From TrEMBL, chains A, B:
Positions that bind Mg(2+) 5: 213
Name of the coding gene: thiL
Residues binding substrate, per UniProt: 53, 262, 317
Binding site for ATP: 120-121, 145, 212
Residues given in the record as Mg(2+) 2 binding sites: 46, 74
Gene3D superfamilies named among the record's database cross-references: PurM-like C-terminal domain, PurM-like, N-terminal domain
Protein's recorded name: Thiamine-monophosphate kinase
Residue ranges of coiled coil: none
Binding locations of Mg(2+) 3: 29, 74, 210
Keyword Zinc-finger (UniProt): no
One GO BP: thiamine diphosphate biosynthetic process
Length: 321, 321
């Protein structure tokens, strides 16, 4: 067993390619970083708690990926470029068999996105991970939730619903014999932050949010902040073939797509006059985007299925409920 | 009971005087802040876990103070001016009787130090608090751990040992009848970050650290990073009258002063030629400073009592031990 200080030294210090804007990364009371002049810093914090956000016996590499990817996803939704992250790790005891794969996956993903660990804290207690991520973005162009206008088109990246189906498999092992159960379980943990899409949408999209609480919940934040309404065609929600085969129920697949949390795809709005240019704007990103609806006047919340009303109740995810 | 979103709205949004450098504080995927040109950002993260860093039934206002003050203390040790903080709060359930005093104390202290909450996360799980604080400092002048030179004098602010005595009272209620037990218990939670001292030491002190793990542990970080040794006279360690009356054992009081964790006083080194100017440099701070020793060559770790060797073992605090 190693103590707290050795733990930090052994697992966290000097594991990464250093960024030039990190003046001091570890070993002092604070890290010191420098942002380029006239660029804003985007900051976001998220906690993952064992038993709430992942099972205690979940693959530690997948937990690391989920923790970092979900945080980077918040930067993406602002169009920010990932820069620095701090990691607060609370564990019941120093478990090197857990730490080794956790750190390897964490630093692999961090290096991939060019985000550097600039400090953190290790404490004793029930397993949980809190990350604070920092990104860089032009403050005047940052993608916010409050810029959607009536007539803008609503898009999402990737497919929706896989994460919730994966959670079903995690919570109910009986489902693991269904088609693609393992793929979906993995999808729950291993989302891909859409960094290139976020950056490409700067100066183009009018609003943006990442899907962490479910499309139906998250889009309400855009509506609330932008003072608008929306019309969404559930028939257009993109779902994977894996999800469709796993559920074997087309309506249920759409329900999953609408409410699946921790999806970390991007939902954004584009003005009508730019809609045609979207494909060329995103051509280098290699990510599917799908138009699922349109912004309407404030008060309109029209969820339909190819123009037909739907008969089931829609709701998102709230950790405290 | 309110849900996660209402919780954030009700307790955390718009509770503070806004800073001009905060472009976007809450309600979006990230906060957006702007640092002045050519100034570095100091970042530090600390977690407080119920059962490890405070008792579950501890006064929530005191817990808030401890969490924020201990984090600001890391900024102080770099000479940084507090700017922004993010708060990740994990609770078993939404407990408004706990949240109200916690938030009131948190925002009172935040306003006092001019640090603005710029986002956070509320999650369900065992009670814990992770803060990431950000401060602003000239990167070339920041107080670091690695600048101590042989011959520099070692100083500490305030008194040492009270925090550990307070912890004794918290963990062993039988001690609450001893003199000043309540004062010491309060001292454990309600430390005062030495912001003015930290700033006054810029361009003056050669190294600095805040005392979170105990003087004997923390000073080793300066020695390690600066590649030097130290001589400390335990007789000179400043202790409060409260501590002396509580313990009623002068030697034990010095032991407490040497090893007391979570003290959040500042330990710093000053070159011989500046020693005489220290009092005038710190005159506006209203904080006692005491010279407790001198930096020696690498390898020297001389802890003595007015020149006499000491006979008891000295050690700091490690959460995982």
């Amino acid at each position: 067993m190693v103590g707290e200080f050795n733990l930090i030294e052994k697992y966290f210090v000097a594991r990464q390619h250093p960024r030039k804007d990190v003046v001091l990364a570890a070993g002092d009371d604070c890290a010191l970083v420098k942002a380029p002049n006239d660029v804003a810093i985007a900051i976001s914090t998220d906690t993952l708690v064992a038993g709430t956000h992942f099972l205690v016996d979940a693959n530690p590499a997948w937990v690391a990926h989920k923790a970092l990817a979900s945080n980077i996803s918040d930067l993406v939704a602002m169009g920010a470029t990932p820069a620095w992250v701090s990691l607060a790790l609370t564990m019941p005891e120093v478990d090197e068999a857990w730490l080794e794969p956790f750190c390897t996956a964490f630093f692999e993903l961090a290096d991939y996105y060019g985000i550097q660990l600039v400090g953190g804290d290790t404490t004793k207690g029930p397993l949980s991970i809190t990350l604070t991520v920092h990104g860089l973005v032009d403050a005047n162009n940052a993608l916010r939730r409050d810029g959607a206008k009536v007539g803008d088109w609503v898009f999402v990246t990737g497919n929706l619903g896989d994460s919730r189906a994966g959670l079903d498999v995690i919570l109910n092992p009986d489902l693991c014999h269904r088609p693609h159960a393992q793929t979906l379980e993995k999808a729950h943990y291993l989302s891909t932050p859409r960094v290139l899409v976020g950056q490409a949408l700067l100066d183009f999209a009018t609003s943006s949010i990442d899907l962490s609480d479910g499309l139906i919940s998250d889009i309400k934040h855009i509506l609330h902040r932008s003072d608008v309404g929306v019309s969404i065609d559930i028939a257009k929600l993109p779902t994977s073939e894996h999800l469709e085969l796993f559920l074997n129920d087309p309506t249920l697949a759409k329900q999953y797509a609408l409410s699946s949390g921790e999806e970390y795809e991007l939902c954004f709005t584009v003005p009508d006059e730019l809609k045609e240019n979207l494909d060329s704007r995103l051509a280098h990103c290699g990510v599917k985007v799908t138009c699922i609806g349109q912004i309407r006047s404030k008060g309109v919340f029209d969820i339909h299925y190819s123009g037909q009303p739907i008969e089931w109740e829609v709701s998102g995810y709230d950790h405290f409920k």
